[in-house]
């Protein structure tokens, strides 16, 4: 291993640990949307109303009407071919201080996500995700 490679390892470790840091406290003036995926998949926040989000682990939006774009990195069972799937959910009634969860689920080749309010009621959902080999 070269000296250059040895010097890069701590930098990469610091960058990766920064990504996995604690999720910031929710702003009570905004709606908070957490993400929940099925194992071994990874669901990442991408955009709110077309603008990129700073942290792919959650969404935080002002009250009202918003479009949320997510990417699902799907790991098919018994297969090494990861798929990258794009999904979108639109909801008009986000409320300040409310905690929502975007829950991914798969049935066969169909992948979708349901937006659940703080009481566990489905309030919106994506249609099937658009998937491409990763």
Automatic annotation (TrEMBL):
<keyword id="KW-0732">Signal</keyword>
<keyword id="KW-0449">Lipoprotein</keyword>
<feature type="signal peptide">
    <location>
        <begin position="1"/>
        <end position="20"/>
    </location>
</feature>
<protein>
    <submittedName>
        <fullName>Lipoprotein</fullName>
    </submittedName>
</protein>
